[in-house]
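Exercise 3.2. Students should predict the tertiary structure of the chain below and write it as structure tokens, then compare their answer with the key that follows.

Predict this chain's 3D structure.
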Amino acid sequence: MQKTSSFYYSLFVIMSLFAAPVIRFFSVFYKNYICAGIYIALVAAAIISISYESLKTKRYAKAFEFKNAFHLDVFSYLTSAGMFLSFITQCVMLYSAFSTPKRSLTVILSTIMSALCALVSSVYFIIVGFSFGDKNYDFREFKLIHIVPMLWALSNVFNLVELSTGFEKSIDSVLKYTTVMILVCFFYCFALETDSDEKAHNTTVLFARLYSYLSILFFTDRLILVLTGNVRLFGAENAFALTGLMICGFTFFFEKNIFNNSNNEMTEL
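Answer key:
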């Protein structure tokens, strides 16, 4: 019964990932509020489904089993590259901020924080990759650095100082806010897991799944806005969407690794 439930859950989430961008395209291209409403309802239903499926399981395997079947070392390096892309983007934004006569101290400070955290996080995920790549490393030994990815995600919350109010961008803004907040929660749970010998928390699985889902939607949303001529191709928002997609590979297979190890433990019992 549980396997049947998981199958239908996975099928619905996958179908929504294909259907939602199509509906979003029509809502932007035709300025159609009905399509926008359907899009929001579909995404909300998927989020509820992911939350239910993640939280109903009380027992998972440990979060960090470095012998994994999903090449998490590769996706750690990809996340590192995404963080370095964010570092470059923040440096460009910082240069633009200093070049503007009316400088905002809040924007400058949050951009500096984001750039520094992105650079440190890029190095951090290289060390994570070494650990999952069966090298003589255990990234959990580096205590204080675990909170830096969360600080990077949190700094991006402060960078969201202006919400676009146009019809074609309102959903995009909400998507980005939600995605970034979920990423803050995931990196917080990730940091907690590094200091725990217990089984992985279901909230860690929940936020990994939610972020993977939302980051794909946000990336496709930005792509739709570019294709329909509503935003520029080269911009900080699109760079962040690309960074988010690169992080998504790690969160997706990190959750799959926990789930796979849990199934292996159940089989051995």
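Discussion points: The chain is about 75% helix and 0% strand. Helices lie at 2-29, 33-55, 72-99, 105-132, 148-159, 167-194, 202-227, 236-268.
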